[in-house]
Amino acid sequence: MWQMLSPTALLLLVSAGTRAEDHPKAKVTLDPQWNRVLKDDEVVLRCQGSYSSEDHFTQWFHNGTVIENQSSSYSIAAARVEDSGVYQCKTALSPLSDPVQLEVHTGPTIPPDSPLFPSWIQVTFCLVMGLLFAVDTGLYVSVQRDLRNSMRDQKNVKVTWSRGS
Ligand SMILES: *[C@@H]1O[C@H](CO)[C@@H](O)[C@H](O)[C@H]1NC(C)=O
Ligand SMILES: *[C@@H]1O[C@H](CO)[C@@H](O)[C@H](O)[C@H]1NC(C)=O
């Protein structure tokens, strides 16, 4: 196989190899720069690297798998949880970048049946019960007062009677 390659081809291979080594690794940057984003956030990944005059393509990897897009910036309009993971890129002249981690989190939404957060039905129930209790005790107090008053009235009546006789 090697014998079949002409010396010029070998020279080209060697020079291609050294050319790639001359260039520093490609670099992935995030915009915004946070590794942790919320679901539906916009994230733009940019690849910094050197391009050759014939080859302007950027190769992107997500979790080690090639992404279709070959532009130098890969934008995620509304992040999904599946967009989490490690991203790497490489260009014609810059070797594979170090991995950059992206974490997409779901927002701090409260699950509807969380016991910590009573539903409006529970709140209404408590309010109604409280109101009933207040009305009840109010009634009880007023009934007691009426009873006491009527008892005093009876006493007064008795007193009046005894005085009168
Ligand atoms: C992929 O690249 C095309 C242009 O080449 C662009 O219109 C599209 O938005 C890119 N998709 C992502 C997810 O970046
Ligand atoms: C990539 O990996 C991350 C974490 O390991 C995972 O959450 C995500 O779903 C993966 N995405 C794809 C497309 O493989």
UniProtKB/TrEMBL annotation:
UniProt-recorded Gene Ontology molecular function terms: IgG binding
Bilayer-crossing regions: 120-143
Aminoacyl-tRNA synthetase among keywords: no
Main location: membrane
The UniProt record lists the keyword Acetylation: no
Record's signal peptide: 1-20
Domain Ig-like: 24-103
GO cellular component: plasma membrane
Keyword tags: Cell membrane, Disulfide bond, Glycoprotein, IgG-binding protein, Membrane, Signal, Transmembrane, Transmembrane helix
PROSITE patterns: IG_LIKE
InterPro entries: Ig-like_dom, Ig-like_dom_sf, Ig-like_fold, Ig_Fc_receptor, Ig_sub
Pfam family, one: Ig_2
CDD domains the UniProt entry points to: Ig1_FcgammaR_like
Record's protein name: Low affinity immunoglobulin gamma Fc region receptor III-A
Organism: Equus caballus
Chain's gene name: LOC100051526
